[in-house]
Amino acid sequence: MSHLDPYGGAEPRGWDRPERPGALPWPERDVEPWNRQAGPELYAGPQAPPRPHAHRPDEPVADPYPLPGEGPGGPGRPPADDDAPTSQLAPVRDDDVSTSQIPVVPAEVDDEPQRPSGRQRGRRRASAQRPPTQQRAPGRAGRNLPAAIGVGLALGALILVPLFFYLKAFLAVLAAAVAVGIWEMSRAVRRSGAHPPVVPLIAGGVLTVGLAWFAGPDALSLGLLVTVLGTMIWRLGDGPAGFQRDLTAATLIAVYVPFLAGFAALLAAAPDDGHLRVLVTLVAVVLSDTGGYAAGVSFGKHPMAPSISPKKSWEGFAGSVAAAAAGSALLLWLLLDVAPWWGALFGIAVSGAAVLGDLAESMIKRDLGVKDMSNLLPGHGGLMDRLDSILFAVPTAYLLLAVFVPVVG
After folding, report:
1. DSSP type of residue 256
2. What per-residue confidence (pLDDT) applies to 346?
3. Phi, psi of 310, rounded to the nearest 5 degrees
């Protein structure tokens, strides 16, 4: 029984293999394996695809998918080693082909230069004579703690010195803080595509704080209304494209920064004890932040709002409330003659408002995709990153102190 030679012509062959096998589908016979010659033509150019073999009607067709134990000739045919195509190839010895005859294919050149993975740009390479530069690791709160403490003390001195020695200078400090906060917020919201006009916002914010200082709560609301209307009129000159988006962002900034900061002006403008009202409010906020930081670093395990501020924990919140309540109970009793339990209630309310203010700004920053409002203050980020808790605390303090310590005159 004969079968078709997969590398030969149309003539069948039997078990007795002919002296010379059939021609393989190479484009030229002089490069076939049995006629191998040492030389560069062994690795000639691209090979042409094999030409399909035309079968005759009376010619048996080999099964392309034989079952296990069958040869390619069909059922009942055992597999044979000499039927395999590779058995017709003569072995290649190492001395037949020298490596110098193999053409070298150039590797693909990447257009982009590869930077060494173990070294960053701008850093020197470490050696035995020059040890690697030690980078200061941030604290567990993610900040440079010494720089944050230094900047915090400088800000505290900037507030307390005019507050106790020349009260009208405190108004100038407050107006400057409002202007910087409005600039930072306007700069940050540009990431969302909004472009609130900065000039009318700053002018209206300073006017709002001044009206609250000299004319009281009613003038504070009037200043907010004037700021929003002035911003809307200013924005009309830029055309209708994005008008609602820009005006919404401007209204948010006007309420968030100058309107809430105006309550600090109301506290300071109280006759006789305005500086003490501001002091107890600031101390309650500082105690809340410090107690929350200490308790969160030491005992924080349960996240308070992981999607907004992952580092805030319920243990830290408990530390904030406890520290603010204890400190406010003592301070209001000594400075404003308020019963300790009312002072503790004041501290709890101010601490809760401060934490809410911190979470509110964290939500705004996450929505805008920024870590800090700016890099104005080393170790703190921007000024708004320090004012976030204070802005929510001063309205709460103003309302509670108006009840606990009524203003006379």
Report:
1. I
2. 96
3. -65, -25
Distance CA 163, CA 156 (A): 10
The three-state secondary structure class of 113 is coil
Give the CA count within 13 Å in the CB-facing half-sphere of 36: 14
Where in the chain are the domains? 167-269, 274-409
Q: Indicate the SS3 state at residue 377.
A: strand
Cα–Cα distances (Å) from 132 to 6, 70, 92, in that order, read 68, 69, 54
The structure tokens listed for 317 are: 């919140």
What are the DSSP E strand ranges found in 218-308?
303-305
* CB-count burial class (<10 Å; 0-12, 13-18, 19+) for 383: buried
Is the whole-model pTM more than 0.85? Answer: no
Please give the span between the terminal C-alpha atoms of the chain, in angstroms, as a whole number. 125
Q: Calculate the CA dihedral of residues 184, 189, 194, 197 and round it to 10 degrees.
A: -10
d(CA 293, CA 266) in angstroms, rounded, equals: 29
Token pair of 361, please?
């700004």
Structure tokens at 301: 């395990």
Nearest to 178 by CA among 157, 208, 216, 152: 208
Q: What is the mean pLDDT of residues 249-267?
A: 95
Instruction: Indicate the Cα dihedral angle 278, 250, 212, 273, nearest 10°.
Output: 0
Close Cβ partners of 298 (under 8 Å, ≥ 6 residues apart)? none
Q: At what angle do helices 167-189 and 260-268 cross, to 10 degrees?
A: 180
- The letter for the amino acid at 243 is F
Rg (CA), the chain: 42
Q: How far apart are CA 15 and CA 5, in angstroms?
A: 11
pLDDT at 113 (0 to 100): 47
Nearest-CA neighbor of 15 among 72, 63, 82, 88? 82
pLDDT digits (tens, 9 = 90+) for 330-389: 999 999 999 999 999 999 999 999 999 999 998 998 888 888 888 887 766 788 888 889
